[in-house]
Each structure stands twice: as structure tokens, then as C-alpha cells.
Specification:
The complex is a heterodimer of chains A (308) and B (301).
Chain A lengths: L1 H32 L4 H5 L2 E2 L4 E2 L2 H32 L4 H14 L3 H24 L10 H25 L3 H9 L4 H30 L18 E5 L6 E5 L8 H10 L8 H35 L1
Antiparallel strand pairs in A: 1-2, 3-4
Chain B lengths: L1 H37 L8 E4 L5 E4 L2 E2 L6 E2 L2 H32 L2 H15 L3 H20 L7 H25 L3 H9 L4 H30 L2 H6 L17 H8 L8 H36 L1
Antiparallel strand pairs in B: 1-2, 3-4
Helix pairs in contact in B: 1-10, 2-5, 2-7, 3-5, 4-5, 5-7, 6-7, 7-10, 9-10
The chains are: A mainly alpha (308), B mainly alpha (301).
Chain lengths: 308, 301
């Protein structure tokens, strides 16, 4: 009797949790779906941001995510390869592991503080002083926001990559060494091909984490409203053509920041509620697609490891 | 030659990773400690002020703007606790229950649906949950409890609980699944039913892991920024009333850093708040790690 009741309670609690989640997502989806249209996604906000679309925010999110990947992914993957394949159980590996674990628990707003203190004010202002550019680097910009996010996702990437590398059986490496392969040949030809999808899964998860963060970019580059896209035209030599390029020294609009300011600092939060729901649905959709991709990839990867 | 070059490059990356982490620590505390240069340490607890009829009054307020700025950290700490503790409590109830359900009760099929669903919740950006709290949950709570303020600590705590339930649930599930099967079989052989096995055998064996999950959840709750900023009402005050508007340490940094001049008194005070936050979460995570290590050791025996 007690058993039936207790197990039922566990089942019920889990059910309540799943239901609450679906209610929350369902209400966001149903309210947001009314607003979302091709026009909403491709036009700028107008009339003091009470009407119009969210294209600059979508564009800014894609740009900053791209920059973040460029900075964090090679660094994190290389550091993990060194930690697992070269340093082994040495002191260096232990230091990397300990600091990475600690970094993973640091609150995201602390990364924001760090971004302002280190990237914008220290690094940026020093660059300005050295290059004599006045105030070019030493102010909030996409470059610094992306760098702050990169530091935030770095430990996630390292931990996930290390896990994927450790899952490759030791015997495969030993077989490769026995055939006369060097360490790098072993890593490149034996370990990395097997760990590839694991590394990819972890990277996608960390990217989705970075794309949804707001606190670290509050002060490092986000703009309330920007009448232009953060673009600069680069002139191609000898042709007279110019091509648009992301300008990393410009400020930008971003989806999660857009939700935050529209919900709390908008001129009329009640009128813009539909826009807020729409923006939220776009952000949720974006992170869900990334997460779902990672989860599916992981299931396939587990199956391939089990069958091997 | 190429071999050594590759190793050097990889090693450099390792160093940069460590350097990034070291720099956070250095920059945070370097700025934070400087707050003590202009503000006496006791002022971070309380200040004494003359009343209008010249009687000394003890003031515990966070009011960094004005002719006579006050930097008591007590209201902020109180706010953080008033959000993080109820959130941890709520998340422990739901998270541990679902963790046990996933590991011990659910069939393989259910598990394969529920676990990814919970992981998917973990991927929801916190600003989305903050927005939901602000737009929907706050009104529900106000109608249900007839509160004076629409945005208050409880609304924030429920939102934060949503963020940390997946952390606690998945870690509890992992910890309980690490308990060897033969312990369960032994209990069943002695005539224990499933519930008795869970309570008397599996939970005690996995207790350290479950504790670690709760601690990590609490660390996350203390550090949660966007929900605290959007849903708790942002009024720095010392109170024990969970339906009062409060302001957490994280929300204070997020709300004020954008408007302060660099290198000023308030700028440093905010970095001090950040250092405090960093140290608190660091300690909590350290305890969690010790708990995990203890469990590994016990189960290996």
C-alpha cells in the first residue's frame, strides 16, 4: 500500500514537472506564433520599437554566435586534446581540469563583469593607447561581447571534448603506436575520427548555451536599438567592388537582450507584449533546434559506439 | 619536427585556457579589493547616520547613488537567499523525485522520452523563463496568494527552480544509476519491495551524489541573473517575507553596472559584490565536488 502510494507520488511529481514545462512552452508558442511571419523576421523595429520586426536582433545573434564559435571552438578543442592525449595525468592536465571545473560554476553575470573590466576597459583601452586610435576599441562592441561569451562556453567545450576523447578505447591508441605511428598521427588518424561526433555534440550544446545567454553581453556590446546593421563595406582591391562584412567593432542588437529590454524597459510593455512573445518564440526555437540536433547526434553516436 | 610543432601549438592552447580562467579571478578581485580603499569595511555591513534630531541611527541599506551613498551588502545577500533557498527547496522536491523516478521506477521507453525532455528544459535560455515569470506566472501568483507586489521573491524562486530542476534531476538519476545492481538484488532477495529498496538501500548508497546535485543546483540558483533581474521586483531591502520585492546580488550588478563610471566607488563596490558571488559559488561547488568524490570512493569499496 505504501509502495503503491510512494511510487505513484514519484510518477505524479515527474508528470507535473513535464506538464508545467509543456504549459510554459505551449503558451509561448501559441502567443508567439500569432506574431511570427516572414515580415516579422525580416524587417526592422519601427515607431519607437512598438511595431515592426526583429531582423536586426536575429542578425546580431547569428553574428555574435559565429564570432564566439570562431574564438572558442578551436581553442577549447585544442586545449582538450592536449589535456587528454598529451599531458595525460600530469600536473598540467590536473591544473587545466581543476580550473575548467571551477569556471563551469561561475555565475554568468560574473563573466559580464570580467568582460567589462578586462576586454572593454583593459584590453580595449590599452589597444587604443598603443595605436593612438582615440576611442575605437575601448568601448562595448560585438568583438568584446563575443570574447566574453567565448570565455563562458570554453569550459563547456573542453569538458565535452575531453569526455569524447576519453571514450575512445585505450587499446586503439596502443595498436596505432605499435604500428609505428607517432602521437599526432595517432590523434589525427585514430582518435579524432572516432571522437568526432562526440566533440560535435558537445560543441553544439555549448553554442546553444552561448546563444541564449544575456547577462554576459549586457554591458559588453548590446544595443537597445540600432538604426543600422553592424556591417562595414570592405573594398576589394583593383576591382572597385565593395563587399559587406560584419563589423566586430560595432554594437549590435540581440534576441535575448531584445526580450529583456522589451519586457522591462519598453516604452509601453503592454502594447509590445505580442512582439515580446514572438521574439521569445524565435529564441526558443533557435536553441531547441540546436539542442535537438545535439541530442539526436548523441543517440546516433552512442549506437555507433555500442555496435563497434 | 612537425610532431613537436603540433604539440607546442596544442600546449599553447592549454595555457591560454588556463590564463583565461586565471584572468577572471585576478580582474574580479583586483577591482573588488580596491573598494576597500575608499569605503571602510564596516560600511559594507552598516553605517551610522545622524537622524533629523541628531540621534545616531544604524542604517543597513544599499543605496549607491546620492550625496551620501550607502553600501551595505546585507539587503543584497538577504535578497539572494530569499530567492535561492526557496528555489533550491522547490527544485529539490521536484528534481530528486523525478531523478528517482527516472532511475528506479520508469520503464526504458518512458525514460527515453522523459530524460531528453528534461534535458531540453535545461537548454531553455534563462531570459525566456524570466520573461514567462514576468508576463504570466507573476499574475498567477498574485491571484493565488493575494500579494501586494506583483513581482516578488517567490515568483523569482519558482522561475529559478525551473532552471535548476534539470540539473538536480539528471545528476540524481546519474548518481542512483551508479549504485551497483547487486545491492538492489540483495534487498529484493531479503523480501524488500521496490519502495523499501529505494529508501533503505539505493538512496543511502547514492546519498552523496544526490547531495552534490542539490549543492550544484544551489550554486546555480545563487548565480542566476536574468530571472532575478526580471521577476523579483528589484527592491533592495532586508526582509524575511518571501512575497516582498527583493534584489539579489546578481541583479544588482546587472542593473547598475551599465550606468556607473569606470573606476568609481560604485564600480568597485559592484566588483566586490561579484567577488563575493564568485567566492560563494566556488565554495558551494567545492563541497559538491567533495561529495561526489566521497560517493565514488564508497561505491568502489
Amino acid at each position: 500500500m505504501v509502495e503503491v502510494f510512494a511510487l505513484g507520488l514519484l510518477r505524479g511529481t515527474t508528470l507535473v514537472l513535464v506538464l508545467a514545462t509543456f504549459l510554459m512552452l505551449g503558451s509561448i508558442a501559441s502567443q508567439g506564433a500569432r506574431v511570427i511571419s516572414w515580415e516579422f523576421l525580416t524587417t526592422e523595429p519601427v515607431e519607437g520599437m512598438t511595431h515592426g520586426g526583429i531582423f536586426p536582433a536575429v542578425f546580431g545573434t547569428l553574428c555574435i554566435t559565429l564570432l564566439m564559435i570562431l574564438m572558442a571552438l578551436p581553442l577549447g578543442v585544442c586545449a582538450a586534446i592536449y589535456m587528454v592525449e598529451y599531458a595525460g595525468g600530469s600536473k598540467m592536465a590536473r591544473i587545466i581540469r581543476a580550473s575548467v571545473n571551477n569556471l563551469a560554476g561561475v555565475p554568468s553575470i560574473v563573466f559580464g563583469l570580467f568582460g567589462v573590466g578586462f576586454f572593454v576597459l583593459f584590453l580595449g583601452r590599452s589597444l587604443d593607447r598603443v595605436r593612438g586610435t582615440g576611442l575605437l576599441f575601448g568601448q562595448p562592441a560585438m568583438l568584446w561581447a563575443a570574447a566574453t561569451l567565448a570565455v563562458l562556453v570554453l569550459p563547456v567545450i573542453i569538458v565535452n571534448t575531453a569526455e569524447a576523447l576519453n571514450a575512445v578505447p585505450r587499446s586503439h591508441r596502443e595498436a596505432s603506436f605499435a604500428l609505428g605511428a607517432t602521437r599526432w598521427q595517432t590523434v589525427r588518424r585514430v582518435v579524432l575520427p572516432q571522437a568526432r561526433s562526440g566533440i560535435l555534440t558537445g560543441s553544439i550544446l555549448s553554442i546553444s548555451r552561448g546563444a541564449g545567454e544575456t547577462a554576459p553581453i549586457l554591458f559588453t556590446g548590446c544595443a537597445y536599438f540600432l538604426p543600422r546593421l553592424p556591417l562595414v563595406s570592405l573594398r576589394v582591391p583593383f576591382t572597385g567592388l565593395s563587399i559587406p562584412m560584419i563589423n566586430p567593432l560595432d554594437q549590435f542588437m540581440e534576441l535575448s537582450y531584445h526580450i529583456f529590454i522589451m519586457a522591462t524597459q519598453s516604452t509601453d510593455a503592454a502594447i509590445t507584449r505580442p512582439i515580446q512573445y514572438g521574439t521569445t518564440l524565435v529564441l526558443v526555437g533557435l536553441t531547441f533546434l540546436l539542442n535537438l540536433g545535439a541530442i539526436l547526434l548523441r543517440i546516433r553516436y552512442r549506437q555507433s559506439i555500442e555496435s563497434a | 619536427m612537425g610532431e613537436q610543432f603540433v604539440e607546442l601549438i596544442l600546449k599553447l592552447n592549454g595555457f591560454v585556457a588556463i590564463a583565461a580562467i586565471g584572468l577572471i579571478f585576478v580582474f574580479l578581485f583586483k577591482e573588488g579589493v580596491q573598494a576597500f580603499r575608499t569605503i571602510p569595511a564596516s560600511h559594507f555591513i552598516q553605517t551610522t547616520e545622524m537622524d533629523f534630531d541628531n540621534t545616531p541611527q544604524t542604517v543597513r541599506m544599499w543605496q549607491p547613488v546620492g550625496t551620501n551613498p550607502k553600501y551595505s551588502l546585507l539587503p543584497l545577500f538577504c535578497g539572494s537567499m530569499l530567492v535561492a533557498l526557496p528555489a533550491t527547496l522547490l527544485a529539490t522536491l521536484f528534481g530528486v523525485a523525478s531523478g528517482i523516478y527516472l532511475a528506479e521506477v520508469a520503464g526504458k521507453r518512458t525514460r527515453e522520452v522523459v530524460k531528453p525532455a528534461i534535458e531540453l528544459v535545461a537548454g531553455i535560455p534563462s531570459v525566456v523563463i524570466g520573461f514567462f515569470c514576468l508576463a504570466v506566472l507573476a499574475s498567477l501568483v498574485q491571484t493565488a496568494f493575494q500579494t501586494t507586489f506583483r513581482l516578488n521573491a517567490v515568483v523569482g524562486a519558482i522561475g529559478v527552480a525551473f532552471v535548476i530542476i534539470p540539473v538536480i534531476a539528471t545528476m540524481t538519476d546519474d548518481a542512483l544509476r551508479a549504485v551497483p545492481t547487486h545491492l538492489r538484488e540483495g534487498a529484493h532477495a531479503l523480501g524488500a519491495n521496490r519502495w523499501e529498496t529505494i529508501v533503505r538501500v539505493v538512496l543511502p548508497a547514492g546519498a552523496s551524489g544526490v547531495t552534490a546535485s542539490i549543492l550544484l543546483g544551489m550554486g546555480r540558483a545563487l548565480g542566476e541573473t536574468m530571472i532575478a533581474l526580471m521577476a523579483t521586483g528589484n527592491a533592495a531591502q532586508i526582509t524575511a517575507n518571501p512575497f516582498a520585492s527583493v534584489r539579489t546580488m546578481t541583479a544588482t550588478i546587472a542593473a547598475e553596472l551599465g550606468a556607473v563610471p569606470q573606476g568609481g566607488e560604485q564600480y568597485r563596490a559592484l566588483f566586490l559584490v561579484g567577488s563575493l558571488l564568485f567566492s560563494l559559488t566556488f565554495l558551494i561547488n567545492l563541497f559538491a565536488e567533495i561529495a561526489v568524490a566521497r560517493m565514488r570512493k564508497r561505491l568502489a569499496l
